[in-house]
Write a structure and sequence with these properties.
With 274 residues, this protein is an alpha/beta fold. It has helices spanning 35-48, 65-69, 78-82, 119-124, 143-151, 163-178, 200-207, 220-226, 231-234, 239-252, 265-273; strands at 22-27, 53-57, 93-94, 100-102, 132-136, 154-159, 182-191, 211-216. It has eleven helices and eight strands. An eight-stranded mixed beta sheet has the order 3-4-2-5-1-6-7-8, sandwiched between helices. 35% of the residues lie in helices and 16% in strands. The chain has one domain: P-loop containing nucleotide triphosphate hydrolases (Rossmann fold). Helix 1 crosses helix 10. The structure holds adenosine-5'-diphosphate and magnesium ion (MG). The site of magnesium ion has 5 residues, from helix 1.
């Protein structure tokens, strides 16, 4: 059984700066489904809309946000902040896309003495510095991922349209709900359009949350990473970029997801049997 902790009494919702900063964690359970891609691209799409955004790599053991963005070895990282060697604001790096990034250290030696419990205080020090803080969570359901869910007021679940990713995604939905973090919805990444893939209504039934956006499999994504840029910046007209921009509009409330017609019990049963 998954153990969940109660959210601490203090919440960003009660902070005087909370009206200015939304803290959203991007989580998946399963690794490699597209958390970092979603964090970087949702962040950049929000920047293109005129918002200020900080993306933070909360993946302490296997960080890769800075690799997606081609950030050179940065002298101050989240590791230094969590070891109380530096202030969060000193660790902010500005990418050429305008996105502000707090990278994690790529060195295996830096992990010594890092306390994930300090993440909460570190985020408090950032409140008011931007409109959004997007946290790229670690894979799995361990301490790293839990801390990233705990500190956020909202989470976005990233999944692929296949059973292995969906099963882990469901666990993250339950963990977020258990600690009182609002589940904004799911992003279904890498849809190839094959018959064996789960459909949006099936995914919504399974996760009991709405699908905010479906991102197609797109060669422009790995190409953009090879060029050290988010795809919305590198290839703004690509099919994946269009979906990431829609996702940004949904997050800001400019667009909304059509509410799915609630299915009758026998319809659910038939779709599961199928
Ligand atoms: P995670 O952070 O969940 O581990 P990543 O965002 O790093 O996953 O994505 C893993 C790999 O999948 C990346 O190397 C990226 O190139 C590829 N990828 C992600 N999304 C897409 C997509 N929509 N189309 C094609 N490739 C993708
Ligand atoms: Mg990642």
């Amino acid at each position: 059984m998954i153990k969940t902790r109660r959210k601490p009494f203090y919440s960003f919702k009660s902070n005087i700066f909370s009206a200015m900063t939304r803290v959203i964690t991007v989580i998946s359970g399963k690794g490699g489904v597209g958390k970092t891609t979603t964090t970087a691209n949702l962040g950049t799409a929000l920047v293109h809309k005129g918002h200020s955004v900080i993306v933070l790599d909360a993946n302490i053991t296997t960080p890769n946000l800075s690799l997606h963005l081609g950030i050179p070895l940065y002298p101050i990282t989240l590791h230094d902040v969590l070891k109380k060697r530096a202030d969060m604001r000193e660790a902010v790096y500005t990418h050429s896309s305008g996105l502000k990034v707090i990278p994690a250290s790529l060195s295996i030696n830096s992990m010594k003495g890092v306390k994930m419990s300090k993440l909460h205080t570190a985020i408090i020090n950032l409140l008011g510095a931007s409109d959004f803080i997007l946290i790229d969570a670690a894979a799995g359901l361990g301490n790293e991922a839990q801390a990233a869910i705990d500190v956020a007021d909202e989470v976005i679940i990233v999944t692929n349209p296949e059973i292995t990713a969906l099963t882990d995604a469901l666990k993250t939905v339950k963990i977020a709900e258990g600690v009182g973090t609002k589940v904004l919805g799911a992003v279904v990444n890498r849809r190839r359009g094959h018959n064996h893939e789960y459909t949006v209504p099936q995914i919504e039934d399974m996760l009991e949350t709405e699908v905010l956006s479906t991102i197609p499999e797109d060669l422009a994504v790995p190409r953009s990473i090879a060029n050290k840029m988010p795809v919305v910046h590198y290839s703004p007209r690509s099919k994946s970029s269009r979906q990431f921009k829609n996702l940004a509009s949904i997050i800001t409330g400019e667009r909304w997801v059509e509410p799915a017609r609630s299915k009758k019990w026998y319809e659910k049963l038939f779709s599961w049997m199928a």
